[in-house]
Design a protein that fits this description.
mainly beta, 18 strands, 7-stranded mixed β-sheet, 346 residues
């Protein structure tokens, strides 16, 4: 089913709908439309941000390009909201016309570049302005569900950026309204990963989808990258009888999903497929939501290197809350070959 969003890929040229329009939320909660010349709002969307002197700064916004590292997940462009030496709490929104009582699911991909310079602490911030280096994560891809960090030394910087996606089922444009349903927060650095999805049932004929990125520290570079947003119907009231229940299994079967960690490349997936396909035909993927979904009596998720998701406990609680009934397992491996050996032993 096609996405309901306009320009969910962020690939439309800015010239198609030239706009510097944003929604500004003041310290006392006033929501107002403003024009900001350094925000190139993508067609179909509105940028929103909090602004409060000494606390939240106005971000700049533009299309994101570049391949070292990849600043787009697909195609030739994503979208970037960034601040210099300021904290940000900002994102994008889009209002979508729908049929009331329709069940909807929002999925978006994101990552951060979180980099600082402090001449008084050169050893603590050793790579200022290096686009490949994020504080805490270093040069590696990092993903952790919110709540998976303990703020131990070396982990504080990892909690700088948190990403969420949300939906207002009544179509409001205030991201802080009580009606907005938010998915679980995540810390993501250096490489795109899917922000945990959110589902709601539309209560009116217009709903609003939101992305949000919030920082803890006024680092020199606080950059939030977004790409490949998708809003799809989960179930629709009044659809033809022949289409009702779409997504439900024809028969019950046991589903075994090998969940690869963020940053795992095709070598990991290919190794699992070559070693297990003929005998087991396991499902292999990199989305925790995809791993848990499905109206099946038996769903097994084998999480590879769960520390990269925030730890086995965090991931276990994620499935317990959002996909009850999943039987959760985990395995640690330093290489694809070690992973194959351990899976074959199970």
């Amino acid at each position: 089913m096609a996405s309901l969003l306009r320009n969910g890929s962020f690939k439309a040229k800015w010239s198609e709908e030239r706009s510097h329009q944003c929604i500004r939320i003041t310290g006392d909660g006033v929501v107002e439309i403003v024009e900001r010349g350094n925000v190139f709002t993508p067609p179909g969307w509105l940028v929103w941000y909090r602004e409060e002197e000494g606390l939240w700064g106005q971000p700049e916004g533009r299309g994101a390009t570049g391949t070292s590292p990849d600043r787009m997940r697909s195609g030739d462009k994503g979208y970037l909201l960034f601040t210099f030496s300021q904290r940000q709490d900002a994102g994008l929104l889009q209002q979508v016309e729908v049929v009331p009582e329709t069940r909807l699911r929002l999925e978006v991909w994101a990552h951060a570049w979180s980099n600082h310079e402090d001449q008084d602490q050169p050893n603590h911030y050793p790579h200022p302005d290096d686009p490949l280096w994020s504080e805490g994560a270093g040069f590696e891809a990092f993903f952790s569900l919110e709540g998976g960090l303990d703020d131990k030394p070396g982990e504080t910087e990892l909690s700088n950026f948190t990403f969420w996606v949300g939906i207002d089922p009544k179509g409001g444009r205030d991201p802080f309204a009580k009606e907005v349903a938010w998915g679980q927060g995540t810390h993501i650095y250096n490489k795109y990963a899917q922000v945990p999805a959110v589902e709601v049932t539309a209560q009116r004929d217009t709903i609003t989808i939101f992305t949000r990125a919030k920082t803890r520290f006024p680092f020199k570079h606080n950059d939030a990258y977004w790409d490949d947003a998708s809003l799809k119907i989960v179930e629709e009231e009044g659809m033809p009888e022949s289409l009702r229940g779409r997504g439900e299994p024809r028969i019950q079967y046991e589903r075994f999903y090998v969940l690869l960690p963020p940053g795992a490349d095709s070598e990991w997936a290919q190794a699992i497929i070559e070693a297990t396909w003929n005998e087991h035909r396991y499902t292999v993927g990199g989305s925790a939501d995809d791993a848990g979904t499905g109206d099946l009596d038996s769903r097994i998720v084998l999480a590879v290197n769960p520390d990269q998701w925030g730890g086995p406990k965090v991931l276990r609680e994620f499935f317990k809350e959002h996909y009850p009934g999943v039987r959760y397992r985990s395995v640690n491996a330093s290489s694809p070959s070690e992973l194959v050996r351990k899976i074959q032993e199970k």
